Amino acid sequence: MELKELLSFDFLMDKLKDAPIQDRALIVAELKQEAQKLKCTKQLNDQIKLVEQNIAENKRQQLKVNPLVDMPEVITNTAGYNITEYGVNMFLPQSMAEVNICPKPLFITERYQDIEDNQEKVKFTYKSDGKWYDLVIDRQILANSSRIISLADYPTGITTENARNVIKYLCDIESENRDTIPIKQATSKLGWTEYGFVPFINNIAFAGGDTYKTLYSKFHEQGNFEDWKQISIECLKYPLPKLYVAGAYSSLLLKEIGVNGFCVHIWGESGKGKTVAMMLASSIYGDADSKSGIIRNGKSTENGIEPVLNFFNDCACFFDELTTLTPEQIEQMIYKFAQGQGKGRMTKGLNIQKSFTWNNVVLLNAEKPLADAKSMSGAVNRVISMYTDSYVFGDMDMKRIADTLKANYGFGAKLFINALKENDIDVNGMFKKYLSLIPDNVEKKQANAISTMMVAYEIACKYVYGTNDKLTIDDVKDMLVTKDDVSVVMRAYNSLIEYVQANYIYFDSKTNLYNQNKWGKYADYTDGKYILILVNRFNEWCAKNNFNSQMILKGLKSRELLKTTGENRLKFKTTSVNVQSDTESTTQVSLQDWFIAIKLPKEENEMVELEVQEIEKNKIDDIFG
Known about the structure:
By secondary structure, this protein is an alpha/beta fold. The chain has 24 helices and 22 strands.
């Protein structure tokens, strides 16, 4: 190669301008070998430097092609990066290399500081296929190359290969624009804050992520207030809608009064208007559509329901149709509703995850009761339960109600909250007044719940609907749960007595049924009539009905409903029982030494005598022989 050709600018430009960066060093090394032969190494180095400067300038000009013309306004400094419609690039002059950071333009455009714990989320903004998109995400996602990969589920251009470079780029962009990227106070849940009630205030942003962004948007006013008010007043003439609406408003008072959340439940056969009643109550807060509004489906699992309750927080929560759940699942959900706090969990990084919390009223409906004789007392006293075997709205046109509520909603809660703020309402005084009207034998949690509902309904009628209607003791007396109703012991006792009455033949000493079907016998003592039950039969009955036998026996003993042999025993010892055969002769037969001796209620004693007469009349042997 001649000297003139080796040092030619055009020759060197052709050699280097399109060469991949990994091949460029090899090409330069070969050229320097030729320069050593021609003794022009210094001249070649100078010429190569000039060529590289020219290539670099050409690259800069190329990067100005297709500039990003709609850059977010908050981004005023690109921190040295070249950002175009085709992504983010960084030019490295030392190697004349153009490094692609990401094939899509992306930025941090807002910061959200949680008003509860000061943790931050950010608005992650990116452009794909000519459109801008936003995601509200935890800040830590953009600080960890393993977690930022989760954004690959969206068309962001982020991969495992460029994750680290993207993190550095976003950090540089945020740092250079920290004076223009806005910081907003935010929350991820509804309810009371020091600034007012979310979502009915304007100075708090919602940063709950895409999962609840759509649901949050349902809490707003829609349609005509007078139309909504009129249909509501018409519906409130009926008792069950009145109680549902009272429950929905009472959630707004729990924090002020200082009582725990509870459930308001309507049950009965399908097609009676339970869902429409829930639409009426939910229309107080927002979109009342049972399919696309704020009403949730009752098929959620125990763990899946925690984030939902956390989102609703102080706001009433609505679950339609729990019929598909088992009794055990329903009981656990009732405890979950009233518990007010989710389980503590660890993240994949072994960090403690933020716990879910709430304190609200949950409105439910189903075709069956939420609690029965087998339910623990904690579940029973947390539910205000209402049964309907007729149409909830009488002869009103339910389609007209539903259509009106779908078009007009979201007025009640805001008016109610404004009334609390603008008027000198003695909420706690009203609560104490109503609480004093509740009978003393009503369980405390039930009394608190009903009293709160009465206060809420009176305030709503006066300041929202403009009526003088009130919720009275007569309206709620049939659903009040007494202390005995709540007691597992007394519910087990009543259930057992019903079983004994229905299966009287297995306890009749005049029959010849001392075999595998025999359960025991009736017996008279000086303090009353008792039912003597074989120990193993009693334990079987308790297990079948999910009762703890020892707890039931101890509870019965403390109520003087259990006869025992010895102060520290729970069983009663007898050596024999009288059995009457077909020939009317009486013999003594030894069954076993120990029985469970349970005292019968007075009304049951009378029923026993009637049963005896009936059985004798119908000839037992013919029936059971």
